[in-house]
Every structure is written in C-alpha cells, then in structure tokens.
Amino acid sequence: MYHKKECVAMLLAGGQGSRLYTLTEKTAKPAVPFGGKYRIIDFPLSNCVNSGIDTVGVLTQYQPLELNEYIGNGQAWDLDRTFGGVMVLPPYQGNKSADWYKGTANAIYQNLAFIDRYDPEYVLVLSGDHIYKMDYAAMLDFHKKTEADCTIAVLNVTLEEASRFGIMNTDDNGKIYEFEEKPAHPKSTKASMGIYMFNYKKLKQYLIEDENTEGSANDFGKNIIPNMLAAGESMYAYPFSGYWKDVGTVSSLWEANMDLLGENPVFNLHDRSWRIFSRTSASPAQFIGERGVIDNVLVSEGCEIMGTVKDSVLFNGVTVEEGATVTNSVVMGGVTIKAGTTVNNVIIAENTTVGANATIGDGTKPGDNITILGSDLSIPDGMVIGGGLLVNAEKLNELV
Amino acid sequence: MSTTGIIFSNLHDMSIADLTRKRTMASVPFGCRYRLIDFALSNMVNSGISDINVITHNNYRSLMDHLGSGKDWDLARRTGGLKVLPPFITAYSNDASALYTSRLEALKSIQGVVAGITADTVVLSDCDAICNIDLRKLIEYHNAEDADVTYAVKTVPLTAATSEHYNIVSSDENGNITDIIAHKKGVEGNFDVSINIWVFKRQYLQSSLLDAAAHGYTSFTHDIIGRSLTKQTFKAYRYDGFYANITSMADYYAINMSLLDPKNREALFKIKERPIYTKVRNSAPTKYVDGATVKNSLIADGCVIEGTVENSILFRGVRVGKNAVVKNAILFQDTQILSGAFVNCVIADKNVVVRNDVMLSGHPTMPLYIEKSKMI
User: Fold this and answer.
1) Cα distance between residue A327 and residue A222, in whole Å
2) What pLDDT does B92 receive?
3) Is the pLDDT of residue B352 over 80?
4) Which of A141, A376, B97, B354 is the most exposed place for a label (fewest CB within 10 A)?
5) What is d(CA A365, CA A57) in angstroms, rounded to the nearest whole number?
6) Contacts for A335 with CB less than 8 Å, ≥ 6 apart
7) Chain B residues in contact with A270 (beta carbon < 8 A)
8) pLDDT over 60 at B94, yes or no
9) Residues of chain A with pLDDT under 70
10) Is the dihedral of CA B176, B182, B186, B188 positive or negative?
C-alpha cells in the first residue's frame, strides 16, 4: 500500500520530565536511558513495530537534540521505510503562525498535514514516558469490534492510586460514560494509560474545534476526551493487564530498573516473542574479572567488572574497579567507578567518573533517599555524598 | 589517493575444518560477538576505504546473512560500499574445477571487477588474521616508496610445528623484499611473516593479472611476486599491534582465550579511533541471577547466567542453568547449558544444548568441538 496506511501512530515526546532533575537537564524525558541499553522511547517504538504499525510521528519540543540523533532515520527499529517510517516532528513556523506546541492536542493539530499524507482510518496517540509491552494491533481489533470513535487503554489500579490518574467509569461492556481527572473519590479503578485510538475523521474534527475554542488548554485529557464524551461519541475502555510503569520520578525510574532483575522478573527483557529494539553501539563483550562478584544484575556490553556488583543495572561501557562495590544502583553508559569506592542506592548518569575510596549514597532503605549523580562529572577521590542528594556540576562545586 | 578493498572470504578454510564445514572462514564466530571478517572490514572502514569487494567461494550463506547490506560497517553506500562477489563460473563450461583453489585464481575469477577499478591503490586482505591495523599508514608508506606491492608483516616467533602455516618475508634495511619463503616446515626463531594484507598499485594488479592469465600462472606468491622480485618494487611494512593467526582448532581456542587478558582486549578492541564493528543483533543486556558465579570471563549481551562460569567466552544469547558449571569453554550464540551440566575445554557451535547433568571435557590442546544444533 503506497498511498494509504490503516493506522498511524503519533508519539508525544515533548515531555520535559522535570521531576527527573539533572537526568533531564540536557535531554527530553523519552531519551532518558533505561534498562541497561535502552531509552524510554524504545518501548513505545518497539511496541509499534511489533504491532505492525510502521508509520510513527515523534513530536518533540524540549531539548530535542539527543532524541533526534538517537532516532535518526529509524533504522534501529526497522522504521526506515520508503513510505512511512519514523519522522521527528518539531514545532515549525507556518505561513500565518508560528507556535510552540501549546498542549498535547495542539501538537497533533499542528501536524494534521503529516497524518493526512497517509490517509489513515485510525490514529494511535501514545506518550513517550512509559515502560510497557503492549500489542496495539489487539487494541485496534477491539476498537473495530466495538465500532468505537475512540478507545482508551486502561489499567486496573488500586483504589488509593486511582486518585492520581484519569479514571474511566464504564458500563459492563467497557463503554465509557464518565471521565474523571484525578478524582478525590474514584468510582472505578480503570486508569487511563494515555494511549488513545481514534477514528481519524473524528479526531481531526475535534482537534480543529478545540483549536478554535478560546482558552482551551489544548490537552487530550482536559479537552478532547471530555468534549467527545459530552457530545455522545462512542468511547470504549480497552482493558490492559500487564506491566506498565510511568517513569516520571526518580524513585519510579529506579524501581522500574529494579523490576528487570531476578529469576522471574516483573518485567522481562529476555522475551524473544516481543523484542525491544534500540540503537546499539559497537563495543566488545563484557568482562567479569578474577575477583569480580556479580549477584542479581543486568550488565551490558563493554563493561569491565573487577569489583562487586549487586542488585543493579549497568549500561554499556561501565568500569567497576577492584574493591569497588555497587549495590541497588542504576549506572549509565561510560561511567567509571574507581577502586575502593562504595555506591549504594544511586542513579549515576552517563560518563561520570567516581574517584577512588569514595562513598556515594545511603543504602539503609533501598529505593528511599536515592542519590543522583549527573552526567560528565568527576567526583574526587575519597568524597562522601549522602543519601537523597541530587548532584549536578553546580551542586558538585558547592560540595567539594 | 583513493583505495579499493578486496577481501578473500574462503582461503584457509581447511585450517579449522570443523568450524568451516558449514560456513566461510570469514564468518567464523570469534570473541563473543564478532565474525572473522569484521576485522578485515573494520580495518578498511576505519582507514577510510568505503569501496570493498568480498570474494566468496562456497558455503557463503552465513556470510551473506552476517553482512546484509553492509550498514553495520557503514558500507551501505550509494557510491562504492560493500559488494559480495559470488563465484563466477561461465555458463556451458561444464568444468567443475572452474572454482578457484588459490588466491591468484580467486583474483582471476573476478578479473572483470578488477579491470573496472579506478582507485589508485588496492588493499587485499584475508580473513584468518585477527588484528587492528591502521591501513592509512600502510598505504602512505606504499605511496611514499612508490612501491608496486607492499606486504604488511609482523615479527613472530616461529616453531618447527607452526612455521609451515606462514609466509616468511625477508627484506633489506630499506624495506625491499629480498625473498619470500612459503609454508616451509621446521623453521625456528623470530621472523617477519606476511599477515596476508597487501597494498597494490592498481595498474600493477591489473597488468599482473592479465600476465598471469596469459601465462597460466596459478600461484600468487611464486608467480606474481616471486618471479618479479628483482624487477619490481616490493616493500615490507612492519605492523606492531595485536596479531593472531588461526591455523588450527587449538589456535582458534587459544586466541579466543587470549582475550581474557585485558592487554589483548586493549590492543584489539579499545583503540579509540579504530573500533571493531559487527552486525548488531539487538539482544537485551545479560542477566546474572542471584547465585550466579562468574570469574575471568568475556560475555556478550543477551545471556542469562544462573550457574558458574569461569575462564570462558560466551557469545550472545547463551544460557547457563542453575548449578551448571562452564569452565575454559567457548560457547557460540544461543547455546544452552542446562542445570547441573558440566563442560570444560569445549567449543560448542551455535544452538547446542547440553542437557541436565551431562559432563563433557576436552583439553586445551585438543578442545572438544560440538557441532551446530547438537543436543547432548
């Protein structure tokens, strides 16, 4: 089919992710490294490819350089196609107006021309902030079967959690009759995952209407979904069961990394039926030395481990020297941890060097009081950095 | 100065017959995630050569699969790039032996391609040598000396047992080659040997191939080089980096194991401006489960380790079950050692399964080879 795609995915990747502090100082949240060799955006992108969706628009805004470079022509995800493929869509200057993306809905609105090129029946709206494996093709089948105008993927959460999410109240067939954003007294536990399947004609109509409405926040959750519901469109909740994690905070990012560990991990990366693709560099294999100890860890290529590593995730090219101990930590690419240093309950960003005999982090309660070391830092020998500190270059200058 | 590369993928297949029964020398797995051709290709790419021809002979399906479009070596190009040259046999020839048996015949079989080369110099390379060489320097030397052919040589200690696998290159103090002794048995001592990488002046390569065809020559060393030693300018260029030459299964085993020494990894893989590229397989990071013990081992991505691994080389996707012990072993892609099994001094080809509680052992001088997809 060279003139038409049945379904086009639009991936919202403009999120700043300010709660990840120094980890998103220089990069957008979807480009934050995750799970030893991935970035967050690899998950929705791989889901698209595994679901047979080969046309994806990636909407970027905040610090797009790293994301643009990472996605490139999409070859790593098999998305370098002659018709379709992956396309990075930054805000642009038009004939009559030039705008940043004002909201999630406005971001799609500004790129209606991109979607129109593929003349799709359906548009899938995704966010680049979550870690999960999901078959969008099954969701599309559901969407077709119910003859819905819009289908929203929902996850069953606990009643306490429900007040943090957009909650869908549905009848027994899954038809949505009410939507409540972060309700104080939730009536249901079906939380929106921020994954929407629309009939494109309807979506386009509502996006144009919304754009012409003064004072609208131009947001899917606040405007488009409530408007469609109010107008009596047919909307269904698609139940998803499985692992899904918003990695918007330091502790949830840490937890999601830890969920990959263990004999039967909560989230399995070694499942060959649903592979997660990523851009991989050419490094030699990992080496575990004569005195290296590894216990419940995930290690990537190019690592050299001479010390002790426990309950941790190590990215590409990490060096742990002899006598160093790394526990309950996430260590990103190119980091060196020198001899005799102890790292516990810490997230270390790319290319930072931790000097010898230093003590970083507080491991009394793993997952609490996580310390963050930003990228490209040089932590001096013998330095002590306590629990819960967020260290970037400025902060390090203060501490030294 | 432009350069074209030619890689011979099948020569030397006989030296590790077990591993090349179903693949070319070029596609023999090495060092956790590489194939031997990765070194020849990366050396060329890192030296700015982006027009590369790979001559094949037989069994080249695995090679085609590995190379693909060449994009992993940045060789999927509009101009130049990677060209795999399948064996060329004239229709109606009915001559089974039309397939080449020597380097010179291999070149003659692609005479049309060679005749079409317009680059100033041509680098030829085999796949049996594992090295990380800056070919730019070699080519600079070749051009500065205005040589017709320049041999890359390395000084190695030869023993009576190994000398027959090498071509000894003697040269004078100006680097002029004075003699080449091919495959002589029983030579001992330090000698410069050819690492099977050559630079040719393009015109000389083309004219000597025509000559060889006209005279019915068959040997590259004896006929092209040997006959013209006094007439042409043949130079030797000494390379002093990591070099290992696979001449037998024991060699293959020992060279893989030598990567456990950080000095060798440093010299082969960690030269900053000259990384070794290979096909990207997109495996997940390797997972070490609680209770895994790993010492002195080189391990690729995509493995799941639950047992004990010592002094071993594990390729991508290997699984070592609970209480399984892997010692001094080389395990190719997707091999599984099930729980309770014990393997020592073993080379397991792809997709081998060693079942629960099976014990297998070879010896470093005679590693036990287990063929592809075998279940034990």
Assistant:
1) 42
2) 53
3) yes
4) B97
5) 41
6) A315, A318, A319, A348, A349, A350, A351, A352, A353, A354
7) 284, 287, 302, 304
8) no
9) 1-2
10) positive
- Asked if A295 lies within 8 A of B297 by C-beta distance, the reply is no
Q: How many CB pairs under 8 A join A and B?
A: 110
**Could you tell me how many residues make up chain B?**
376
- Distance CA(A301)–CA(B277), nearest Å, equals 13
Residues of A within an 8 Å Cβ radius of B: 35-37, 75-76, 260-263, 265, 269-270, 275-278, 280, 282-290, 292, 294-301, 304, 313-315
Q: What is the pLDDT averaged over residues B8-27?
A: 81
Query: What's the average model confidence in pLDDT over B341-363?
Result: 94
Closest in B276, B284, B295 to A288, CB measured: B295
pLDDT by residue (tens digit) across B260-282? 999 999 999 988 899 999 998 88
Which chain B residues are Cβ-neighbours of A278 within 8 angstroms?
Answer: 282
B96 has a pLDDT exceeding 80: no
The question of ipTM being above 0.95 is answered as no
B229 touches chain A (CB under 8 A): no
d(CA B84, CA B50): 14
B260 at A interface, C-beta within 8 A: yes
Closest CA to A46 of A242, A267, A245, A273: A273
Query: Residue B93: what pLDDT?
Result: 52
**Tokens describing residue B57:** 């002979």
Q: Give the per-residue pLDDT at B98.
A: 56
A269: distance to nearest CA of chain B, Å?
6
Sign of the C-alpha dihedral computed for residues B54, B82, B224 and B199 taken in this order = negative
Contact between A285 and B300 using a beta-carbon 8 Å cutoff: yes
CA of residue A27 relative to chain centroid, distance: 13
Distance (Å, whole) CA B314 – CA B328: 10
Q: Do residues A351 and A316 make contact, with C-beta atoms less than 8 angstroms apart? A: no
Contact B286 A286 (CB under 8 A): yes
CB contacts of A295 in chain B (<8 Å) are: 288, 290-292
Strands (DSSP E) contained in A139-292 are 150-156, 166-170, 176-181, 190-199, 235-240, 244-246, 286-288
Contact by Cβ (8 Å): A79, A56: yes
List the structure tokens of B266.
């440093």
Report pLDDT for A17: 76
